[in-house]
C-alpha cells in the first residue's frame, strides 16, 4: 500500500481487524426518524431520568406552534412516547394542528381555552385551568389559547409521537392525513364537559378533568395502607392515566413495568428509589412539579417523607379497554414478601417494626440534563452541572426485605432491629 491510499478492508480483515458495519453506513442512518424530527424542531431537549420542576424548564421560541417550548425525552420513555412543555405568552394562541399520534395535556400553570374540530363538522370549545387534564382526540384539529393577558400559561404534553415517527418515517403524512376518526370524536355536545362513567376497579371513563388536585379518589389498600387511586380512560386512547395518593410516613410497594410512565408530583414531598434488579439503588428527590419516568423494568418505590399526603399523576401506556402498544397492560409486579400494615397503620415489610430507622446504604439522585441546540461550550457546561449526581439522605420508615441486595442495618434507639434489610431514617 502506498502513502495516501486507504487500507484494503480485505487486507485489514486478514490481519484480524474488524470493521464495524455502522462505520461503513451513512451518518444520517444512525439517527431515528424521531431524532431527526426533534432536531428540526429547533427547541431545547431535556434528557435524563427526571425533571426537578416542570415549572422551571427552560423554553425557547417554537416556530411551528408560534409559542415557546422544550421537548422532554427521558430515559424511561424509551422513545415509545414523549413529553414537552408548551408555554403560551399572555393572550396568545397556538397555530392550529392535527396529527396521527395521541396527545394528553396537563396544565402546569395558567388558564385558557381549547378548540377542537374535525372535517366531519364536529366542533367543541372548553376552558382549562391549573391542574386540568384532557386529551385531544386522534387527528382532530386543535389550538390552545392563553386566557390571561398578563401571565404566561404552561402546559405539559405527553404524546405517542416517537412511536409513530419511527414506524412511518414521514412527518408530512402524520400532520396532514385527512382521515376522520369518528370513534374518537363525533362532535357530540358535552364531549369535554367533564362527565364520565365509573367502572369497577376505580376506572373513570371521561374526556376532561377540571382539576386533578381535587378529583375524588377511591381506597386501594392493596398498594399500601391508606392508599387511594383512580384510573382514567380518555378519548378511546392507547395512552391512559391514573392518580394515586398515599399518607405521610408511608411508601408505595416496589414494582416495575414497561416504558413511558410519566409520573408528575402534584403535592407532597419525598423521594423515589429506583434500581435495576441486583444493582445499587438510585434516589430521586421530589416536590410539587417534579416529573419522574422510571427506566424500563427498574424496580421503584415512592416514599412520602413530607408533612402532608402525597398525590401524583401518571400519564402512561396500559389502557383498561384491552392492551395497547408497546407492551402488555401496565401491571404492577411487587417483589415477594409484600408489606403489611403496622400497628400505627404504616406499611411495613415482613418482620419489620414501625419505628424510624437509620439508613445504612448510600443512594444517589438522578436529574435530567438540558441540551439546547445548537450545542455550545457554555450550554454543555450548564447541562453537566444540572445533570450532576449527588448523594442524599432522606427520612422515612423501614423498607421491606425485597429492597435487595440485602444489607444489615440497625434501628435508632427505642425500636426493634431491622437487620437483614435496607433501613431508612433521618439523616
From TrEMBL:
Residues 85-157 form the Cupin type-2 domain. It comes from the Bacteria. Transmembrane segments: none annotated. It comes from Candidatus Segetimicrobium genomatis. Residues 325-386 are annotated as: Disordered. Residues 357-366 have a biased composition (Polar residues). Residues 329-338 have a biased composition (Basic residues). This is Cupin domain-containing protein. The keyword Metal-binding applies. InterPro entries: Cupin_2, GPI/OXD, RmlC-like_jellyroll, RmlC_Cupin_sf. Pfam families: Cupin_2 (PF07883).
Amino acid at each position: 500500500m502506498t502513502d495516501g491510499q486507504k487500507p484494503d478492508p480485505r487486507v485489514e480483515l486478514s490481519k484480524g481487524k474488524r470493521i464495524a458495519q455502522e462505520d461503513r453506513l451513512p451518518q444520517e442512518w444512525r439517527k431515528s426518524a424521531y431524532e431527526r424530527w426533534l432536531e428540526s424542531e429547533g427547541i431545547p431537549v431535556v434528557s435524563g431520568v427526571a425533571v426537578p420542576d416542570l415549572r422551571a424548564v427552560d423554553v425557547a421560541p417554537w416556530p411551528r406552534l408560534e409559542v415557546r417550548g422544550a421537548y422532554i425525552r427521558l430515559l424511561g420513555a424509551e422513545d415509545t412516547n414523549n413529553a414537552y412543555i408548551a408555554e403560551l405568552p399572555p393572550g396568545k394562541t397556538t397555530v392550529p394542528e392535527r396529527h396521527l399520534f395521541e396527545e394528553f395535556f396537563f396544565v402546569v400553570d395558567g388558564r385558557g381555552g381549547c378548540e377542537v374540530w374535525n372535517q366531519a363538522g364536529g366542533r367543541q370549545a372548553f376552558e382549562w385551568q391549573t391542574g386540568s387534564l384532557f386529551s385531544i382526540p386522534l387527528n382532530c384539529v386543535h389550538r390552545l389559547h392563553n386566557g390571561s393577558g398578563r401571565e404566561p400559561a404552561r402546559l405539559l404534553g405527553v404524546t405517542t409521537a416517537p412511536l409513530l415517527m419511527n414506524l412511518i418515517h414521514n412527518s408530512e403524512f402524520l400532520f396532514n392525513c385527512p382521515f376522520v376518526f369518528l370513534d374518537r370524536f363525533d362532535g357530540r355536545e358535552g364531549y369535554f364537559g367533564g362527565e364520565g362513567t365509573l367502572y369497577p376497579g376505580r376506572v373513570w371513563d371521561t374526556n376532561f378533568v377540571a382539576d386533578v388536585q381535587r378529583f375524588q379518589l377511591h381506597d386501594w389498600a392493596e398498594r399500601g395502607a391508606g392508599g387511594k387511586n383512580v384510573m382514567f380512560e380518555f378519548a378511546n386512547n392507547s395512552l391512559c392515566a391514573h392518580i394515586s395518593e398515599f399518607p405521610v410516613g408511608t411508601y408505595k410497594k416496589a414494582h416495575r413495568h414497561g416504558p413511558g410512565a410519566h409520573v408528575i408530583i402534584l403535592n407532597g414531598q419525598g423521594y423515589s428509589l429506583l434500581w435495576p434488579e441486583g444493582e445499587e439503588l438510585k434516589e430521586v428527590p421530589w416536590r410539587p412539579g417534579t416529573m419522574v419516568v422510571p427506566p424500563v423494568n427498574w424496580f421503584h418505590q415512592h416514599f412520602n417523607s413530607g408533612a402532608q399526603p402525597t398525590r401524583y399523576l401518571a400519564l402512561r401506556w396500559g389502557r383498561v379497554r384491552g392492551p395497547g402498544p408497546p407492551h402488555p397492560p401496565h401491571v404492577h409486579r411487587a417483589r415477594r414478601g409484600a408489606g403489611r400494615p403496622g400497628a400505627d397503620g404504616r406499611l411495613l415489610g415482613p418482620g419489620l417494626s414501625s419505628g424510624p430507622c437509620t439508613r445504612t446504604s448510600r443512594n444517589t439522585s438522578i436529574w435530567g440534563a438540558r441540551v439546547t441546540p445548537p450545542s455550545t461550550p457554555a450550554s454543555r457546561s450548564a447541562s453537566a452541572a444540572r445533570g450532576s449526581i449527588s448523594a442524599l439522605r432522606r427520612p422515612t420508615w423501614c423498607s421491606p426485605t425485597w429492597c435487595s441486595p440485602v444489607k444489615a442495618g440497625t434501628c435508632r434507639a427505642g425500636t426493634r432491629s431491622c437487620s437483614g434489610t435496607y433501613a431508612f431514617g433521618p439523616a
